[in-house]
Amino acid sequence: MPLDHVRQNGGPLSMTPQQELSDLNVIEYFARVLRRGQLDEVTFGEDKFVTIPRAHLRTGQLPPDEVEKLFARRRDDSPVPVVISLLSLQLSGGRHAGLVLLSALLRRDGQLEAVVETASSPWIPAERLNSPQVTGRQVMLGEQETFWKSFHGPLSAEVSQVESFADAVDLADALCKEVSGLTPEEFAEQRTSGRTVLDAQTCYVMEFERINATRNLLELYDHLLRTQELGLVSQLIGGGHSPVHERDIHREDGLLARALDASGSMSDGFPLTASQRRAVHGFLTDGANDVTAVSGPPGTGKTTMLQAVVATLLTNYALREQAPPLIVGMSTNNQAVTNIIDAFGSVTKKSPGRLDHRWLPVAEEGAAGEAAMTSLAVYCPSGTKRQAAQGRYLLEDHRKEGIYSEYSSPEYLSGARDCYAAKAFSYFGHTSDIPGLKKMIHEALVEVDDLRTELLRHMASHGPDAGYSALCAAAAENPHLKGLSRIEGLSQCTDLVGLDKELDRTLRYAEFWLAVHYYEACWLEAEFIPVDERWKRTQSVMEAYWQQAAALTPCFVMTAYQVPRYFSLYTKKDEPVPFDIGRIDLMIVDEAGQVDTAVGAAPFALAQRALVVGDTQQLAPVWSLDVQTDQEVAASAGIELAVWEELLQPHGLTCSQPSSLMASAAHSGRWLHGDDAPRRGLFLAEHFRCHPSIIGLCNDLLYGGLLNPQRKETDSKLHGLTEAFQFRPVPGSSDTQVGTSRKNVPEAEAIAQWVIDNYDILHDVYIDQIDDPNKKAKPDGIIGVVTPFSAQARTVREVLQKRLRDLPSGSLIPANLASAMTIGTAHQLQGAERPVILFSAVYGDAAGEAGFIDANPELLNVAVSRAKDLLVMFGAERRWNHGSAFRLVAKHASKTDANIGSGPVPDPSEGLGLAANAPAGLGVQPPALPAGPPADSVRADDDVRSTQRGGASRLAPADAAPASPSEVEGALTVSQLIARWRDMGELRPEDSKIKATELNARLAKAGFLEGEPGAWRVTMAGELAGVGTERRTKADGTSYEVIQYEPRALKGLQEMYREGRL
């Protein structure tokens, strides 16, 4: 059963009937997996459930009062689908988690009719069954493999023998015993302890229709099987490209060809990195009917890459005067979906010029508002998510009652046209009606694009000669480019690579915004679908809708479950639902490594091409099937075991470990990356988030050294205060099992103590010293705690909460820190980051191996790569350099028990008279330092002075990066000096909260500084005493100097402070 499809001369896929059958078999297999039902996790809460004693439930009849509650919101007396929990875990806020569940239909007379399906109902949620990717919750019932085997063995006959509702309850009880070894009543009795409260005597009943989540996908799969119109799904399944290494993208004239194709950019700040550019050019090399997969490890700028692709697509369509591209972003978890929205949700700078902002106003109460739109994306949530998204995002629904209606009202359009015309006049210097402005914009776009392509072709053919200089001069004088601050940079380019980068920040940026305004004009002159016809879903109505809606916002973001709903077409009652195959110009999938292939594959049929971004080295999907059951479902769809094992599983096309949509997409495309053992897909290599010492662990652990760390060690706000990656041994470390989870109280105590000891200095560094309020960290957003086990997360939270009740006076720690900060497993921090991450390994000294950590390096990868500046691993002494994961930890981390600012550092001043027992970095100096003239005035300021003595100072931004290490090792800024003294206990009680601003004022009064806040200068006396400066450079190249106190000055300052003279 071959699955390889062949392209002929770059044209459509050519398939034999046998190959079509193979694709259809795979589609039938995916559909059957979804029909089995996902093993849903169900929470009973918000007063939407009723309760009934177990003994009464067995009768299959609900009391009249409870029936009324469940029918209260129904418009008719048709049966209500319900779910019943026969074993429940008590949660906070009066909620309960169902552990053993049964589907049923509730009739108006109160009769319950059980829905019994093999391996589907009754069921145990996948999140409560141990599997390779799910473990560690406090209450787990057993193994996922045992769950599936029970239906092949002991329970197989019982399913067919259920006649009464009591029989269905008995079947659920039998399932619980097969999986856990206990009946629900026994499980509740034996496993209830402390805060873990289980209940099997009271059953919970709630309206719940399980098929809702996958119904739309199943209807789409049915359409594909019925019509055999497979679209891009065929490419996902069969591939067909000969592998090409990504390095070949720029071979020969490849760089010029792709640079000519790349016409848009959403940012004028930084150009694409080398690997981002390769990924964009790889996408541009691909075309219709292609799936382009990009592996994006943590912190490698996948958002920037996606923005570049969308900007180019939009611009190229506008250049050709085509209808706007329809782009759909999807994933299966809400974090990934909101990541896509955020990537396109605010594309306007804080201080834009006349061109680079949206010329359409926001809609407010049916009319045009004062503020401009900022987003290019609209969110299409499910009904349950809509209220939470209201006010945060532009919204649309499948009835066209969201943004389409709001922004097409006559009142809005009248004001929007006036606003648009005024913005266009400001840019062009003259105006016209909307059709005229649209023509002017397109002419300007073509003019700028011609100039861009001329520059590229000339540089490629002749280099930076006089002709190139003339083109640069023409660009600088072009009226459409007058507002670009970096246009002069074109003349500094010496080769094609440099020019391609500079175009990202100049001409491509202008082209993108001209394209945005071109489509805004299209929106303003559109003939909208009449209000009374918008409910229609005919082919002609939907075609008009999508062409118009994409002109306003080209990106529509939704979950994979929602996509088919938006692209279904009109059908008569009781007829199969048809779909608009190939309607989407580009499908973007984010976090595809977490997407189950069966869920993510169906929407591909609706797209002409796909860009799939993810990382198979991070969190995996939560598979609902074990391997054996997965093979059996495939066999039922006509797929032989050999085909499943040799073709489908290696290509990510199965529905159990280790498949994912990311894996299948990578294998269906043409690209390879890496040298020694090339991997499928394109690869983003430059890493920007973590300190190099931190990301080095991930690089060795999973990426084979392919990551290229871009952050300098001196970029960290904690540089000079502490080592970036630490292993902190916990004396007496001992873990205990909590169900199938684990906890370690000594580690939790150690983490809580670390937070108490170090929070104040972190607050000073990440909040107090930051001038820009938008860049200040939130008090609960500085530290995150990650652990492999949820029981340990709860223990850490409880211990920290208890310790925070006895905070010392003057502590900066918020009283609610334990509840407000993120403390959890890697899943809670996927896609997020924190300046500081504390990792609890949990396995104690008595544990021979850290089995779960060693077996799941992907979870460790997620945990480690959340830390920007500091990662502290808490673990038993036995963990150090023991086991596959911690041997790598020992390679990259420093073993220490020092707090921030107190750790020993190499003595930089040997021979300069350091006291033998003085803390590292405190130099010996005569007690009385020379005093200079007092400063005339003092106000709050940072440790910054001008780049020229006596000149005006430019305040250093909080995120500015030093150009090089300090010329004098061991020198401290005043903030670091305070941290050192605080940790040593030197600070007087009245100075417990002293900030850099106050100490600067005292140093000026003592004669070491002069000038004024914002323009401090070191006095001659200060220089003699050892006060110096270090030149640093911002990302934009602007230089400034930071005042530092060398080791020979520190001892004297300490003695002055002790004597009350500072």
UniProtKB/TrEMBL annotation:
Q: Name one GO molecular function term.
A: helicase activity
Q: Where is region (Disordered) located?
A: 897-968
Q: Does the keyword Magnesium apply?
A: no
Q: Which Gene3D superfamilies match?
A: P-loop containing nucleotide triphosphate hydrolases
Q: Which residues form the DNA2/NAM7 helicase helicase domain?
A: 272-345
- Quote the biased-composition stretches of kind Low complexity, using this chain's numbering: 911-923, 952-966
Family classification? Belongs to the DNA2/NAM7 helicase family.
The protein's name is: Uncharacterized protein
Recorded source organism is Kytococcus sedentarius (strain ATCC 14392 / DSM 20547 / JCM 11482 / CCUG 33030 / NBRC 15357 / NCTC 11040 / CCM 314 / 541)
